[in-house]
Amino acid sequence: MSASPPFSNPLRETKLAIEAGVRASKAVMEIYRQDFTSGVKEDDSPITKADLESNRIIKEVLSASGLKVLSEEDEDDKSRLDAEKIWIIDPLDGTSDFVNRTGEFTIMIALVENKRPILGLICRPTTDSLFLAQKGGGAFQLDCGEWKKLHVSGTDDLTKCRAVGSRFHLSEQEKEFFRDLGVMSFESRGSSLKVAEICMGMADLYLTTSNKIKQWDTCASYCLVTEAGGRMTDIDGADILYNVDRINHERGLLVSNGIVHDEIVKQYKLKNAL
Q1: Whole-structure pTM over 0.90, yes or no?
Q2: pLDDT value at position 190?
């Protein structure tokens, strides 16, 4: 993987994020190729040695920035709330996919300034893929050593939209709403790859009504999809802020190519007003 960012004026933290993601990806794959065991955290979510080793490596690399880190695998240090700029990371997004060996797990690193993501990186270790976005600089995928600029689809008809959703956490309510929308197709995807596919124009929308999605699950994706021309809000259409006290996104999540976004919000509100 190239360590040279595709932006004309990269942030000084961008190279750190790439280094952290690449190093963590290599460590995760070493564990993935072996026999490994998994445990269960207090919230009943799975955890493996890969989660912890990735977390250790990423924090070690990012420590050169001197910034605080909010990570899924660490206790939340509320002193972060006083910081103008912090890192938000998910060392292994899609641990269930890792355990079930679907290959659809990622590593997510984001930089937040004044509650807004300004840098987002997603690594997919099994395919050696890297997605990177910087505020005002666009969104890119590193493909065969070359940076390819990403842009969302131009689909404006919901019946022609390709929807993606969770493989392990899709609720009956969400299935019903996808049917109500009349979308052309629906496919299950693991981890942040759902948003990556929207950024690439391969899918048009993803939504969840769950209140269990957390800041580290979405922060890198927010920067990527925004820079690719799409939108990410809560299910009611309200913008999302980061480095706030509440870790959970209490009102779900909606990600789209931006064109169909308002119509989906409208239909969701109408359905739930009945």
Answers
A1: yes
A2: 87
